């Protein structure tokens, strides 16, 4: 039988700093002037690159939120719901902000893509943590191989 995957649980301040960095990154990339190259197709050429970036960005936000809340006394379902709701609400707020910027637009489809990315992330997190054992890691020297 294969052992459980071991992942470091860094101090809470570092985890929340990662959340703040993700929030700021999403905000900055959402308000800068887009390039004038026109729509670029994403992987597999199925949907525009911006759609992929929305999904990945808000999935990332949901993941760092669930990681930051890993030591919460709340049940897992509450943590996952909170991460999903916050990521989706943040994305909706960004869309509202974009509606006030001349070179940006409000798009409800982007909100749906953000929500889908967050939903996939929290579902993936739920599946992942079944096979993971977190260990406290206060310094780099404490890191261990993920599999032994």
The SSE string, one letter per element, is EHHHHE
Class by SSE composition: mainly alpha
| Poorly predicted ranges | none
Ends apart, CA distance between termini: 12 Å
Describe the structure.
With 148 residues, the protein is mainly alpha-helical. It has one domain. Helices cover 57% and strands 7% of the residues. The protein is built from 4 helices and 2 strands; from the N terminus they run βααααβ. The chain has helices at residues 12-31, 49-68, 76-98, 108-129; strands at residues 5-9, 132-136. A two-stranded parallel sheet has the order 1-2. α1 (12-31) runs antiparallel to α2, α2 (49-68) crosses α3 and α2 (49-68) packs across α4. The longest helix is centred in the middle third of the chain and has 23 residues, at 76-98. It is elongated. The mean pLDDT is 88.
Task: Explain briefly what this protein structure is.
The protein is mainly alpha-helical and 148 residues long.
Topology readout:
Elements lengths: L4 E5 L2 H20 L17 H20 L7 H23 L9 H22 L2 E5 L12
Parallel strand pairs: 1-2
Helix pairs in contact: 1-2, 1-3, 2-3, 2-4, 3-4
């Amino acid at each position: 039988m294969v052992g459980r995957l071991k992942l470091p649980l860094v101090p809470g301040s570092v985890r929340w700093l990662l959340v703040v960095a993700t929030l700021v990154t999403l905000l900055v990339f959402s308000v800068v002037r887009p390039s004038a190259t026109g729509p670029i197709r994403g992987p597999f050429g199925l949907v525009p690159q911006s759609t992929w970036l929305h999904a990945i960005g808000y999935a990332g936000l949901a993941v760092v939120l669930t990681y930051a809340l890993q030591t919460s006394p709340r049940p897992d379902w509450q943590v996952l719901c909170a991460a999903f709701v916050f990521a989706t609400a943040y994305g909706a707020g960004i869309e509202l902000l974009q509606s006030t910027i001349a070179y940006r637009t409000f798009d409800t489809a982007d909100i749906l893509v953000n929500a889908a990315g967050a939903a996939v992330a929290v579902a993936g997190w739920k599946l992942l943590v079944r096979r993971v054992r977190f260990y406290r890691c206060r310094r780099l020297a404490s890191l261990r191989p993920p599999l032994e």
